[in-house]
Design goal:
Helix content: under 10%
Number of helices: 4
Strand content: 25-35%
Distance between the termini: 52 Å
Shape: globular
Structural class: mainly beta
Family: Belongs to the glycosyl hydrolase 16 family.
Bound molecules: 2-acetamido-2-deoxy-beta-D-glucopyranose
Protein name: GH16 domain-containing protein
Oligomer: single chain
Radius of gyration: 21 Å
GO molecular function, one term: hydrolase activity, hydrolyzing O-glycosyl compounds
Order of helices and strands: HEEEEEEEHHEEEEEEEEEEEEHEE
Organism: Petrolisthes cinctipes
Keywords: Signal
Length: 361
């Protein structure tokens, strides 16, 4: 009996620790802690799609332990060429049908933008890179508190790593009305002006409906203290209260967002639009639960990877020739093969006080 209890205890401490906030008696209270001793599938699920959203990204998100895995108490996402999975020439002649890929029914998690089934031909290639996107949708979402992610970014052209959060329930409607919190986005390129892996960005997306999105009021770009976010681990932290959100990289404040009276007033939109957040708290749409996402996207045609590095940037280079496109999958993940993966060492969420239901409304 004793041995059994011990075994159970060991199991619990190695998995992601998820605590119901209602059981917190002292604060700060650690309500979520994952050190990735193994991948806890009660918390994390793989998205399966080649949708790429409106960005027309070039990756296929798959559930494959060659691509995403835990090792040395670290979660790795390591992109790989689709041809290594399906064979040479597949991307220009094969059909990639992701329905049922998990072997447990019809699983494809994103059907928009032809995300579940595509045919390759000489003009339109099937997405040339396999990668992974994990989300804590099944197991954890949080509203207000301190969030810390310790991670190292990948090195490699056109890799687009992201550590971010989306709304658990989309209570104010579709994107971007319910908000998006991009804790970190960067680019894997070594030599890409001031857009390479030496730099990172933090952004909140919000607006009453697409294409109204006021992210330019809530975004910051910054430089890695050690020269590149692909060189070593860094800690991204959010201090998120009911009145503001502060973002830190290695304990340096990089962005502080206080919308004033409300995000609606902050937007400056007039009364010709309906305010979806009118019944929310001050920080609406960021007054509700968000879950984590970690991914390595690749390329895209939305301008995140401009074809020409602007001339005002240092080191403009002719690397746009290698940019993967719908007609060319080449040039992806060149460079150091060991460095092309994102590594997430830990994720934590701390509550400072219990959030009780609102009174007086
Ligand atoms: C996973 O990807 C590798 C290529 O890296 C491939 O050889 C393998 O067949 C894939 N496994 C599954 C289950 O799709």
């Amino acid at each position: 009996m004793k041995a059994l209890c011990l075994l159970l205890l060991v199991g619990v401490t190695l998995a992601a620790d998820v605590v119901d906030p209602k059981t917190c008696t002292t604060f700060p209270c650690l309500i979520f802690n994952d050190e990735f001793d193994f991948l806890d599938h009660d918390v994390w699920e793989h998205e399966i799609t080649m949708s790429g959203g409106g960005n027309w990204e070039f990756q296929v998100y798959v559930n494959n332990r060659s691509v995403s895995y835990t090792r040395d108490s670290t979660l790795f996402i390591r992109p790989e060429l689709t041809d290594r999975w399906k064979g040479d020439g597949f991307v220009s002649s094969g059909e990639l049908n992701l329905w049922g890929m998990n072997g447990r029914g019809d699983v494809c998690t994103g059907n928009s933008y032809y995300g579940c089934d595509r045919f390759g031909n000489a003009v339109n290639l099937v997405n040339p890179v396999m990668s992974a996107r994990l989300r804590s949708l099944p197991g954890f979402a949080v509203k207000y508190g301190r969030i810390e992610v310790r991670a190292k970014m990948p090195r490699g052209d056109w890799l687009w790593p992201a550590i971010w959060m989306l709304p658990r329930y989309w209570p104010y409607g579709g994107w971007p009305a319910s908000g998006e919190i991009d804790i970190l986005e960067s680019r894997g390129n070594d030599d890409y002006g001031d857009l390479g892996n030496q730099y990172g960005g933090t952004t909140m997306h919000w607006g009453p409906h697409w294409p109204l999105n006021f992210y330019d009021k809530t975004t910051a770009q910054y430089t890695a203290s050690d020269g590149s976010f692909a060189n070593s681990f860094h800690v991204w932290r959010i201090d998120w209260t009911s009145t503001k959100i502060d973002y830190y990289v290695d304990d340096v404040l990089v962005l502080s967002v206080d919308p004033g009276t409300s995000f609606w007033d902050f937007s400056g939109l007039g009364s010709e639009y309906d305010n979806p957040w009118v019944a929310g708290e001050k920080l609406a749409p960021f007054d509700q639960k968000f879950y984590f996402l970690f991914n390595v996207a690749v390329g895209g045609t939305n301008g995140f990877f401009p074809d020409e590095v602007p001339a005002t940037h240092p080191n403009p280079g002719p690397i746009h020739h290698h940019k993967p496109s719908s007609t060319s999958g080449m040039g992806v993940i060149v460079g150091c093969p060991a460095g092309n993966r994102v590594r997430v060492a830990s994720v934590k969420a701390l509550l400072y006080r219990l959030i009780t239901s609102r009174c007086g409304r």
